[in-house]
Amino acid sequence: MISATDVISWVTGFYSCPKAPSSWTSEGATIRTRKFMTNRLLCRKQMIVDVLHPGKATVAKTDVREKLARMYKTTPDVIFCFGFKTKFGGGKTTGFGLIYDSLDFAKKFEPKYRLIRHGVAEKLQRAGRKQRKERKNRQKKVRGTKKAKVGTGKKK
C-alpha cells in the first residue's frame, strides 16, 4: 500500500526544478534568487531576484547581471534584469531576471526596447515630425504607385 509521504515525495519530486544557486554576497550586497523556473518554450531560466543592500544605494543592474552570471555560470550578455523596486526604507530591492540559453533566443523573444537598453540592438532614427507631415501631404496629391516616387522627396 502507498503511504501519504510516498505520494507527497513523488509529487514534489515531479514538480521541482533543478537545484539552482540561491545567493551571492559581495561588496556589502547579497543577491538571492527565488521562484526559479526553467521555461523550455522560451529557451530561458526565469526567477525573482532579491538584492539586499542595507545602508547602501541601490545596486546597478549591470552589477546584478555580472553576479547572476557568476552564480549560474554563464555570460552577462544573455541575462536580462528588469522591474526592480526598492522597498520603503531601502535595504531590499526586488526584481525579475531572465537567463536565455543563447543571445539568438534573447533577440527572438525579448522586447526591442530591452534589447536597445542592453546594447544588443540599435534604436531606429525616424525623420523629423515636419518631414513626415510634408511627405504625407505630398503623397495625398497623387494616386497609385506614384506615391512611392513622391514620398522619396524632390530631386535636385
UniProtKB/TrEMBL annotation:
Keywords: Ribonucleoprotein, Ribosomal protein. GO terms for molecular function: structural constituent of ribosome. The keyword Chaperone does not apply. SUPFAM superfamilies: Ribosomal proteins S24e, L23 and L15e. Residues 126-156 have a biased composition (Basic residues). One of its GO terms (biological process) is translation. Signal peptide: none annotated. Residues 124-156 are annotated as: Disordered. GO terms for cellular component: ribonucleoprotein complex; ribosome. It comes from the Eukaryota. Belongs to the eukaryotic ribosomal protein eS24 family. This is 40S ribosomal protein S24. It comes from Mytilus edulis.
